[in-house]
Amino acid sequence: MADAPARPLRVAEPPAPWLVGLEGPTQGDLPDINVWLALAVQEHPHHLQAQRYWASLHDPGAAQSVLGPDLWFCRVTMLGLVRLLCQPKAVGPGALDLRAAWQLYAQYRALSRIGLLSEPRSCDDALRALVGADPLPARAWTDTYLAALANASGLRLVTFDRDFERFGLERCLILSA
Predict the structure, then answer these.
(1) Is 16 part of a structural domain of the chain?
(2) Cβ contacts of residue 44 below 8 Å, gap of 6+?
(3) Number of domains, the chain
(4) Residue 73, Cβ neighbours under 10 Å: how many?
(5) Is-above-0.85 flag for pTM?
(6) How far apart are CA 61 and CA 23, in angstroms?
(7) Residue 115, domain CATH
(8) What is the Cα–Cα distance from 97 to 95, expressed in whole angstroms?
(9) What is the CB neighbour count within 10 angstroms for residue 48?
(10) 159 forms bridges with which residues in the sheet?
(11) Domain range for residue 148?
């Protein structure tokens, strides 16, 4: 079999920085699962507050990013939102099936201002520092991870959960419940 003639390689543009796990600050906010859920469910008790937060970021006078998204999902918040949207105990009788919940998540992700955050290499170090600081109850494990991810990514964590005060985050917005 004859060797095929060599074809030149096509050089692709590097991925946009918000699509890869680059170190260094990323701009924007990392909403907690409770914020995403309150945004998605009109019957949620904090829906109005979540809508006000959303409007404050997306009003015509707000600075528009030219670098990429300014709101972020991570795998934990994506999985949590989709899971809770399927739970009647969390959202009531209007709970969605898995396909519909995934589609709602996909609609958010289709917005240019919402990205899916990659975990930076420094996240483990940030997590180790938070775990070693004070004894934490096991129920705080996911919150600890989100706090570490926000710190390592240079993002502001946005939540309704006052328990995040325990982490002393430099950038944290606790919305009024």
Answers:
(1) no
(2) 37, 38, 50, 91
(3) 1
(4) 22
(5) no
(6) 30
(7) 3.40.50.1010
(8) 7
(9) 11
(10) 174
(11) 25-56+68-174
